[in-house]
């Protein structure tokens, strides 16, 4: 056979490898509202940049008649290409081939892509659409999952790992995305659960639908397992591309800097009127964030979970930054169990990948009540504290209104190695709010007064004037400055510039023991 004939044979095999499970199964995939594994890759990567790995691999199982059913590439497509002009690796499970089930060779393909991503310092994205372990391969498929989990763990904090749940992900398979940095899910098609509705009914008698059990909105709002929700495959993959634009390629790189065209010295008059004069009134902290960051471009993470805390990515002066902020318009911005987990996880991610942290503070404290105490608010709150104290990236905070009690300490304070700490003139910093403080400190005075209500009001007003302001903390050096709200953007950008070469270290150790 001459070279021309061999090239023809190669073309035939490549066409066979790209055919997936065949026309009928591809049509069935489309009818479910899902794209194929290769169509998803085409949308994720820059046009013409994708290079496939192992397209001719086939499974090695000889049981249950599988020796007669072999598809080139098996049930996953792997390779690398460019996203926004930068390299990334991918594995995309092919539901048209054996339901995307994981075989030993499929796991080997995935592990090879992950190893190459780590060795070459590039993100790895998993497009998940699978019925789980391939039953016919028994323990081999389970070992394959273990190999993937190990790499998820070892490469955590080395290169960004992103999971995109675009179909079913069940049983042990869910632990791979759970270890990764971010999870995207598509409404209506993406699902994650340990045990399905049928098993739950047989064991507990509970009846529950697939979406309610493990759909995108369930994980986005209740479990907190999902960071981003999309309406369809196309929207989801575009969001992945957007997220990667904020991130460095690996833990040895600085975050990308780009010219956003937004004046770093821009002032905003609207910030002057954002915080209400009445301390009991709420406001939307997202308005502060959007007005301060470059072009109002803020990519919120975990938008639907633990909504008293806001976390996300933005740019300031062209530099990628992580934003952590209270949301006064939801439960007064209180820190509860879920908010603690959400904040700690995001702070640690930013620290892994050299992304500076900007913290907007308006916090009344930790959520009181027996429910929170019994759920472990002490332990969960300690995670948040631990994450900030451990972080060595530049840390800048702005107290916009209140910062009470231990929550003041947690939110990137000087005590936790905060670098630059600002406050607006509206800030109140105290052990507790004026009402609570007066009730404790002046209880006897109020009780003995002829007019307790009036006396209490006068004492609260006096306490607020004398103590509930930022100048005592600033006078002791716990704040670096009290600033005009309108100048927040240029002040923060200048602080970022001076902190660009910051060096901070932790003692040599294998790893800390965060209170999980």
What is the topology?
Layout: H1 3-17, H2 23-31, H3 37-44, E1 51-53, E2 76-83, E3 86-93, H4 104-120, E4 124-128, H5 139-154, E5 161-165, E6 168-170, H6 175-179, E7 182-186, E8 191-193, H7 197-204, H8 210-214, H9 216-223, E9 228-230, H10 233-246, H11 285-292, E10 299-301, E11 309-316, E12 319-326, H12 337-352, E13 357-363, H13 370-375, H14 377-390, E14 395-404, H15 405-410, E15 420-423, E16 428-430, H16 434-441, H17 443-448, H18 452-466, H19 471-475, E17 481-482, H20 488-498
Parallel strand pairs: 3-4, 4-5, 5-7, 6-8, 7-9, 12-13, 13-14, 14-15, 14-16, 15-17
Antiparallel strand pairs: 1-2, 2-3, 10-11, 11-12
Describe the overall structure.
It is a single chain. The protein is an alpha/beta fold. The protein folds into 3 domains: 3-246, 2-enoyl-CoA Hydratase, Chain A, domain 1, CATH 3.90.226.10; 269-432 and 469-498, 2-enoyl-CoA Hydratase, Chain A, domain 1, CATH 3.90.226; 434-467, no CATH class. It is 39% helix and 17% strand. It is built from 20 helices and 17 strands. The protein has helices spanning 3-17, 23-31, 37-44, 104-120, 139-154, 175-179, 197-204, 210-214, 216-223, 233-246, 285-292, 337-352, 370-375, 377-390, 405-410, 434-441, 443-448, 452-466, 471-475, 488-498; strands spanning 51-53, 76-83, 86-93, 124-128, 161-165, 168-170, 182-186, 191-193, 228-230, 299-301, 309-316, 319-326, 357-363, 395-404, 420-423, 428-430, 481-482. Strands 10, 11, 12, 13, 14, 15, 16 and 17 form an 8-stranded mixed beta sheet that branches. A 7-stranded mixed beta sheet has the order 1-2-3-4-5-7-9, with helices on both faces. Helix 5 links the parallel strand 4 and strand 5. The longest helix has 17 residues, at 104-120. It is elongated, with a radius of gyration of 26 Å. The mean pLDDT is 94.
């Amino acid at each position: 056979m001459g070279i021309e004939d061999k090239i023809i044979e190669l073309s035939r095999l490549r066409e066979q490898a790209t055919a997936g499970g065949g026309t009928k199964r591809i049509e069935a995939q489309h009818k479910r509202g899902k794209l194929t594994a290769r169509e998803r890759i085409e949308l994720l990567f820059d046009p013409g940049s994708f290079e496939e790995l192992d397209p001719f691999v086939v499974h090695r199982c000889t049981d249950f008649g599988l020796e007669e059913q072999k598809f080139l590439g098996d049930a996953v497509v792997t390779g690398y290409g460019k996203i926004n002009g930068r390299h990334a690796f991918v594995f995309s499970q092919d539901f048209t081939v054996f339901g995307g089930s994981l075989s030993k060779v499929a796991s080997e393909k995935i592990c090879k892509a992950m190893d190459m991503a780590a060795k070459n310092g590039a993100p790895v994205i998993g497009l998940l659409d699978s019925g789980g372990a391939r039953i016919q391969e028994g323990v081999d498929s389970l070992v394959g999952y273990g190999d993937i989990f190990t790499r998820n763990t070892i490469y955590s904090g080395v290169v960004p790992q992103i999971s995109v749940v675009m179909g079913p992900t069940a049983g042990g398979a869910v632990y791979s995305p759970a270890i990764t940095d971010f999870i995207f899910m598509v409404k209506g098609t993406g699902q994650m659960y340990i045990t399905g509705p049928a098993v739950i009914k047989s064991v507990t008698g509970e009846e529950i639908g697939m979406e309610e059990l493990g759909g995108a909105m369930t994980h986005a709002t209740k479990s907190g397992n999902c960071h981003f929700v999309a309406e369809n495959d196309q929207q989801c993959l575009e969001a992945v591309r957007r997220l990667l634009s904020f991130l460095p390629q690996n833990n040895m790189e600085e975050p990308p800097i780009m010219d956003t065209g937004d004046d770093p010295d821009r002032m905003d008059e609207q910030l002057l009127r954002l915080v209400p004069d009445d301390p009991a009134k709420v406001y939307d902290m997202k308005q502060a964030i959007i007005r301060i960051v470059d072009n109002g471009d803020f990519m919120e993470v975990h938008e639907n979970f633990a909504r008293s805390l806001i976390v996300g990515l933005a740019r300031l002066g062209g530099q990628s930054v992580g934003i952590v902020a209270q949301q006064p318009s939801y439960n007064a911005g209180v820190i509860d169990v879920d908010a603690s987990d959400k904040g700690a996880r995001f702070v640690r991610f930013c620290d892994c990948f050299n992304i500076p942290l900007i913290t907007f503070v308006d916090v009344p404290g930790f959520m009181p009540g027996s429910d929170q105490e019994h759920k472990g608010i002490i332990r969960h709150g300690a995670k948040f504290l631990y994450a900030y104290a451990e972080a060595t990236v530049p840390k800048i905070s702005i107290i916009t209104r209140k910062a009470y009690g231990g929550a003041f300490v947690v939110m990137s304070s000087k005590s936790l190695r905060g670098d630059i700490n600002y406050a607006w003139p509206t800030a109140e910093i105290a052990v507790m709010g004026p009402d609570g403080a007066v009730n404790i400190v002046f209880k006897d005075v109020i009780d003995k007064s002829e007019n307790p209500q009036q006396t209490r009001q006068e004492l609260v007003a006096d306490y607020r004037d004398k103590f509930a302001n930022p100048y005592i903390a600033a006078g002791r050096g716990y704040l670096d400055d009290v600033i005009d709200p309108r100048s927040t953007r240029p002040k923060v950008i200048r602080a970022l510039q001076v902190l660009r070469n910051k060096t901070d270290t932790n003692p040599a150790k294998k790893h800390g023991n965060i209170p999980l």
